[in-house]
Design goal:
Layout lengths: L2 E2 L5 E3 L6 E3 L6 E2 L2 E2 L4 E5 L6 E5 L6 H9 L3 E4 L10
Antiparallel strand pairs: 1-2, 2-7, 3-8, 4-5, 6-7, 6-8
Length: 85
Amino acid sequence: MKKVDQNGWEHYDKLPVEYRLATINDFHFNGRKKFGLEFLVKWADKEYYQVCIVNENLKSAWLKQFIDENRVFIKKQNNESLIKN
């Protein structure tokens, strides 16, 4: 169940079953970012999955470090309609 912490951040205490481990390719389609795609980043020090959204400020280098550590998850049914033209 999605929660909101005292700072206003949406998160999960446990990884929802409908999410899977992400790869960098999950965030692009035909060379374009999938704007609006929701993903989770697991905190390193506890069972806390912060909800994030792909936007114009998201940089691949920032995301890749977490992907390389197997800490990024996306929903199993990826929605291709989130691609910005």
